[in-house]
Amino acid sequence: MRHEVTPADTALAVGSGDVEVLATPRLLTWLEYATAQLALRVLDPGQTSVGTAVRIRHRLPTRVGDTVDIVADDPAVDGRQLLFRVRATNSAGQLIADGELERVVVDRSRFLANVP
């Protein structure tokens, strides 16, 4: 999955800092999206997955206009728990982030019924 960094993706724009480089929260959103899409492959009808844990190292800044490639590996499955290894690289092929995201498979109706 490839994304171009826009002014709306910067730390200044999202409020996570005061510099005009890719914001960690935006990067995390892209990583979460990639894992949510991969999780669809293991879901049964009526199920969804929800994010439960994140451990990401944002290693290098990325300028507006640069591209970011997001890769999530197929999950390690342990019952309802899905563990994804993720990484992001810039247009020069440099590793800008890596880590793990965890998702849990839930029954969609039951999950939504428990939302206060």
TrEMBL record:
<dbReference type="InterPro" id="IPR029069">
    <property type="entry name" value="HotDog_dom_sf"/>
</dbReference>
<feature type="active site">
    <location>
        <position position="24"/>
    </location>
</feature>
<dbReference type="InterPro" id="IPR025540">
    <property type="entry name" value="FlK"/>
</dbReference>
<dbReference type="Pfam" id="PF22636">
    <property type="entry name" value="FlK"/>
</dbReference>
<feature type="binding site">
    <location>
        <position position="103"/>
    </location>
    <ligand>
        <name>substrate</name>
    </ligand>
</feature>
<dbReference type="InterPro" id="IPR054485">
    <property type="entry name" value="FlK-like_dom"/>
</dbReference>
<feature type="domain" description="Fluoroacetyl-CoA-specific thioesterase-like">
    <location>
        <begin position="5"/>
        <end position="108"/>
    </location>
</feature>
<feature type="binding site">
    <location>
        <position position="51"/>
    </location>
    <ligand>
        <name>substrate</name>
    </ligand>
</feature>
<protein>
    <submittedName>
        <fullName>Thioesterase</fullName>
    </submittedName>
</protein>
<feature type="active site">
    <location>
        <position position="32"/>
    </location>
</feature>
<feature type="binding site">
    <location>
        <position position="51"/>
    </location>
    <ligand>
        <name>CoA</name>
    </ligand>
</feature>
<feature type="active site">
    <location>
        <position position="58"/>
    </location>
</feature>
